[in-house]
Write a structure and sequence with these properties.
- It comes from Salmonella enterica (Salmonella choleraesuis).
- Pfam families: SpvD.
- The protein is an alpha+beta fold.
- The chain is globular and about 25 Å long.
- Strands 1-2 form a two-stranded antiparallel sheet.
- A hairpin with a 5-residue loop joins strand 1 and strand 2.
- The chain has one domain.
- It is built from one helix and two strands.
Length: 52
């Protein structure tokens, strides 16, 4: 799993999330809004699929 974040310099930064560690949970929408300016654009995608 990974999170791709584009900050003010428009460069993508990738944060890998280990979904089995509770210390590495995804930020809430409110936390994302607090961190980024209101003019910033971002997409949050969550997948709940099981793969063999």
């Amino acid at each position: 799993n990974a999170v791709v974040i584009c900050e003010y310099d428009k460069k993508p930064y990738v944060q890998f999330i280990d979904s089995w560690k509770t210390s590495n949970i995804l930020p809430s929408l409110q936390e994302i809004k607090k961190h980024f300016s209101s003019s910033g654009e971002f997409y949050v995608r969550a997948y709940d699929e099981k793969h063999d």
